[in-house]
Write a structure and sequence with these properties.
Structural class: alpha/beta
Number of strands: 12
Distance between the termini: 17 Å
Low-confidence stretches: none
Mean pLDDT: 96
Strand order of the largest sheet: 7-6-5-8-1-9-12-11
Shape: globular
Helix content: 10-25%
Number of helices: 4
Order of helices and strands: EEEEHEHEEHEHEEEE
């Protein structure tokens, strides 16, 4: 099986969104370069960020998100983001009414069953877990192998925490990788077992 990675852009003080649930400048680095990150032509980053992020994105088989992210993005109109093959949505509710059952999305109740489903689908590819409450639940349950953060140069002071409501100490190894992009610091840690 591939690694299970919690990933997200984050403020210097550890938030993935402000008090109004907005990312503010956390994603500015995705628009401030001259190297296209995907086929859309919208995302353009520095060469360093491109090489780091593109290599990671190409390894992702499944992304796991919570229902809140799914609803905020309108389910990406049934097409998983960033070229990901499948999205597993952790939710206590069924798929939205009228949802196309052929879309590559699974709706699973609970973090552990959701990660089992994601690993079945991903095989030896990476299972990416969105930072925030779902990422924090997976982290607290000991289901995460790696933590990736794209640290943006902003301090929110409060908002949605990178690890959600997790309040237990956990040691990480590393950082095993540190790269400075344009307006972002890419960090990668292994979770100590």
């Amino acid at each position: 099986m591939g690694d299970v990675v919690v990933y997200g852009s984050v403020s210097v003080d550890g938030f993935i969104a402000d008090q109004d649930d907005q990312p503010g400048p956390l994603f500015d680095w995705l628009l401030n370069g001259d190297v296209p990150l995907d086929d859309s032509g919208v995302l353009k980053v520095s060469q360093t960020s491109h090489d780091y992020v593109r290599a990671y994105w190409d390894r992702i088989g499944v992304t796991v998100v919570g229902r809140h992210v799914f609803d905020m993005t309108d389910g990406w109109d049934g097409a998983p983001p960033a070229g990901v093959d499948h999205v597993v949505v952790v939710t206590h509710r069924p798929a939205p009414e009228g949802w196309d059952a052929r879309a590559p999305f699974s709706f699973v109740d609970g973090i552990e069953p959701a990660l089992r489903r994601a690993q079945e689908i991903a095989g030896d590819r990476v299972v990416e877990v969105a930072a925030g409450d779902v990422g924090g639940q997976a982290f607290a349950a000991g289901l995460i192998d790696e933590v990736r953060m794209d640290v943006a140069p902003v301090v929110f002071g409060s908002g949605k925490r990178y690890f959600g409501a997790v309040d237990a100490q956990q040691l990480l190894d590393g950082p095993v990788e540190i790269l400075q992009g344009d307006g972002v610091l890419h960090l990668r840690y292994r979770v100590r077992r």
